[in-house]
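Example record for the data management plan.
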Amino acid sequence: MMLNIIKNKLALSLLPIFMLSIGSAVAQPVQQKTADSSASEKPIDQSFTLDQAIDYALSNNPDLQITTERIGQAEAQLGVALSAFYPQVTAKVGYDHSNNPAQVFSMIVAQRDFNANSINNINTPGYRQNFRPEIIGKLSLFRGGQDYQNSKAAELGIDAAEFERSIVRNALIEAVTASYYAYLAAQEAHKVAKDSIGAITSEFKQSKLRHEAGTVLKSDVLSLEVKLAEAQEAEIRAANSIELAKTGIATLLGLAADQAFTVAPSTSTLPRPELTATFDDFLELAMTQRPEVKAASKQVEIAQAKLKGEQGAYLPRANAYVSYGQNSQSPGFSSSKDNVTAGVSVEMDLFSGLGTKNRVSAAERKAEEARETERKTKLAIEQEVKIAFLKLQEALARLRVTEASVRSADEALRLVNEERRAETVTVTRYIESEVARNKAHSSTIAAHYDALSAEAALKKAIGDWK
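Corresponding structural encoding:
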């Protein structure tokens, strides 16, 4: 359940970049106030690397800030639970005005005004008033273990909230990393599209001139025109992908839509991803590291503590109390008329309309639900690790294939160039070879980014960024 909650939280953030391969980075906006307080704040455009983007997201992403507040809420709930072990002190002031013989007689005695005339007038005492300022202290001595179990559940709630924060942190780092590489991959695709447009445009112009001179067929010119339209369409899609990726990054970083930032490529050579262990090793690591597993386990313990607390309602309850105050006809306080009452009370529910039984039954169901949720969480993590493992395998295989295709595309373009100089191939064939070479290079770069993203997904799957 908790795993699904965290996925739902990040679904909106990741939606704009879902169509991309995966990647991330961000720019930290810094606002500079003008001397005039009425002037609007203008963001300063800055460029950030992947590490800087992750650091900024960890300090500014709203989902992560929400989990921090939930930890504070859980700590406050623990304080509420522990308050049951402290005395409860209440200040109270009461006022009565009555001619009821029983109540008036009680007031006279409590006010220490009883005398012989009080008996003579017992049936017709007239109206009398009573001011009762008092301080009441209560202390719960025993409540069937309910207070202890509630405090234990509250302590476990803090742990669960901290694990929830780790869940969001783990997912957030992976999402920022993924959108960073998606942005860089989109930029590469845009660059290739522009290069293709340039090459095709140049050849298209030359072919038109040759067609007018009668040395090139009309079909070759039309083919180049179609190729140019395709390249222009690819350039539009790539440009839009860049903006979508940047929007996704801004959302993950918690930036406003009007805040300017740029994404800086890595200053060092991108590492080459690799599989360093078997699937079983990764799965074992995930089951020990993933905060979702630990959070689900804590939820089971919380449910069991709450069940024991509900079962404690079957046992007797004991409370100690003390009351100190005075009774008088005027609001002033006099120590000669003070009254002190102290005692202990024990009570036990003999029949609560089956309320206790139904609360215990509901707690039992809740505990069983927590156990099933824990099992479901483990199954979901196992599936996530398996998918991430297979996708990294696929990405590494694609990277090897694309690297081989680059060598073949370079050689093919070299041969077509020679044939073109010998005028044994059409211009369309030359353009196709050049575009294929550009795409091969672009595919290799994109495959490298995809492999890095797949590696990040596997790290998230095993809980590397908890």
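Summary line stored alongside the record: The domain at 2-14+22-27+43-85+145-312+354-461 is CATH 1.20.1600.10 (Outer membrane efflux proteins (OEP)).
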